[in-house]
Amino acid sequence: MNRRAWFLFLLVAVLWGIPYFLIKLAIDDLSPVFVVAGRGLIAALVLLPVAAARGTLGALRAKAGVVTLLAAVHIIGPFLLITYGEQHITSSLTGLLIAIEPVAIALLMSRTEPLTKGRTAGLILGFAGVAVLVGLDVSGDRLGLLGAGMVLLAALSYAVATILVQRRAADVPPEALAGGTTAITAIVLTPFAIATWPSGPVHAPAWTALALLGVFCTAVALLAFYRLIALAGSNRAGLVTYLNPVVAVALGVLFLDESVRWSTVAGFALVVAGCWLSTRPSPAATSSTKEEPVPAPAG
Q: Residue 225: how many CB atoms within 10 A of its CB?
C-alpha cells in the first residue's frame, strides 16, 4: 500500500477503535436502535452537503439498488447486531469475533485473489494477536451463545459489504456512497427510534457520545474506508479490524490509567506483523509490475 492508503488505514483503525466506549456512554440513556439511527442521521447531515457541493449525488441514481443493499449489510444490520449482541457477551469476545472479518474476506475472494503463504501467515498472526490482546472471556448471560452468533453474523456482514463496495460500487464517489448509505439508515430506523424515544432525562455525555459517533466514527470513518477500498482493495482494507482492539487498548492505557501487560506488547507485535505480511504484494504482482512498462501519458 502507498502512503495515502496507510494513512487512511490507520485513520479508520483509530475511528473504529473508539466506538465501543462511546456506545457504552450513549446507551446509558438512549436505546440501541436510537443510537444507530442517530449515528446515521448525523452522518448523513454531514456527508450529503459535501456530496452536493462536489456534484456527486447524481452518481447514486444508477446505483440505488447497490447503495440500499450496502446500507443494510454495512450499517443497519451489523450495527444493530453488535449493539444487541454485546448485551449478552463480553467486549473482549466481541472484539475477537469481529476480527474474523479479514479471514472471511480472504476466503470469499479466494477464487479471484488466491491466498499466498505469506498472506495466510499474516491472517493467522493478526488473528492470534487480537486473541492475545483482548483475551478470551466467554462469560456472559444465558443468551451468550445467541449474542456471540449475532456478533459473528455482523462480522460476516462487514466482509460481504467490503467486497460489495469493491465489486459493485467502486465507481461511486466515497462522499456520495457514504452519504447515501447513512441517509437510508436514518430513513429506515427513524420510526423505530421515535418509538423508543427516551422517557427520562438524557444527560450531556450521552448526547456528546452520539454526536461523536455520528460525525467521526460514522461519517469520517466511512468516507475514509470507502476510499481505502478503492486504493488498496477489500482484502487489505478489511485488516483494520485487527487494529481496532489495539487502538481500544492504547486509549485505555493513555486515558484510563490501565496497565501495560505482557499480553499487550505481544498482541500488538503479532497484529503489526500480521498486517505487514498480509499487505505485502504477492511475487506474481511484483514481477508483473516490473515486466509491464507504465504507458506514457497521451498528449
A: 25
How many angstroms separate the Cα of 93 from the Cα of each of 79, 115, 132, 139, 234? 16, 27, 12, 9, 24
What confidence tens digit (pLDDT) does each residue in 223-241 have? 999 999 989 888 788 888 7
Q: What ranges in 99-143 are assigned the alpha helix state H?
A: 101-108, 117-134
- Encode pLDDT of 142-176 as tens digits: 777 888 888 889 989 998 999 999 899 989 999 99
Q: Sign of the C-alpha dihedral, residues 222, 225, 231, 233?
A: negative
Q: Say whether pLDDT at 299 is over 70.
A: no
* Dihedral sign of CA atoms 3, 180, 218, 268 in order: negative
Task: Give residue-wise pLDDT tens across range 19-40.
Answer: 877 887 888 899 989 999 999 9
Which parts of the chain fold into alpha helices (H)? Answer: 3-15, 19-26, 32-54, 64-71, 77-85, 91-98, 101-108, 117-134, 144-168, 174-195, 204-214, 221-232, 234-237, 240-255, 262-279, 283-291
Spatial separation of the C-alpha atoms in residues 61 and 42, rounded to whole Å: 22
210 with 35: CB under 8 angstroms?
yes
Per-residue cell: 213: 459517533
Q: How far apart are CA 262 and CA 186, in angstroms?
A: 43
Q: Bridge partners of 89? A: 140
CB 237 within 8 A of CB 9: yes
Buried b (16+ CB within 10 A) or exposed e, 90-124: bbbbbbbbbbbbbbbbbebbeeebebbebbeebbe
Residue 228 neighbours by CB distance under 10 Å: 27
Q: For the chain, how big is the Rg over CA atoms in Å?
A: 20
Q: Give the DSSP letter string of 257-294.
A: -----HHHHHHHHHHHHHHHHHHSPPHHHHHHHHHSPP
Q: What Cα–Cα distance (Å) separates residue 88 from each residue in 17, 64, 81, 93?
A: 20, 35, 11, 10
Beta bridge partners of 140: 89
